[in-house]
Amino acid sequence: MIYLTKRLTFSSSHVLMNPEYDKAKNWDVYGKCSWPHGHGHNYTLEVTVKGEIPGDTGMIIDLKALKKIINEAVVDKMDHKFLNTDVDFLKGVIPTSENIIVMIWKELEKVLEPGMLYELKLWETENNWVVYRGE
Amino acid sequence: MGNDKPIIELFTRVFFSAAHSYRDRDKTPEENREKYGIYNRVHGHNYEVVIGLRGQADVKTGMMINFFEIEKILNDKILSVMHISHLEEDIPWFNDRIPSTENITRFIYEQLHQTFKFPVGLISVEVKESDDLGAKIINEQCTD
Fold it and tell me: What are the beta bridge partners of residue B40?
């Protein structure tokens, strides 16, 4: 079994606030991330897929094809967008790193071969990141 | 797959700078120089620390734990103690231990192990004293 990782980057804005909370509670829970004008991050996404190496091509997936799939399914939809309102698969979701990575997983599962997706890593900054394996 | 209560792993990286030297307190300076070589000299590193947590995001907040909260814990328990310190002189835990990368990792793990409770668990502590040398403790018990 081989694990193959593709890294992509995107830049997006978001604001962390729960519409059920008032301003004070949002400040208490999310701090400066709840500032209503929003703020931005340079995100890095690593997608790891797994598979056996086929004898004919020697590739578990063509990296160009993988890049195209990930860009079309998630990255192009999020790059230079406001994550709270502009992304169909994030509608109704507070765009924390934890929520974003789970929603990216759900989108990629739809477009990759069943069982191929192994792990996602999403860096919000160089010092803060999340990992999800579909558990 | 994909799950109603997804298990997330969350990592935070912080840095501190500290001095140390390797020596056994019951040995003479000559014996220590002989045993530890250049590591017997007082010298310093810019340490990189990566803390790994595992748990579920709160349905209401969308967060497992706020990054700011982790930063505060790490500031209070680790950085305020270790940053700009001479490890074996300033921190009692190191008085009778060699301040190796392994022991530094163990010290940080012990400080944080009890801090993160269910539903958030500490899964790993990794410390690098340079790009070329690091140590890691993995909490095998933390599966949820």
Answer: none
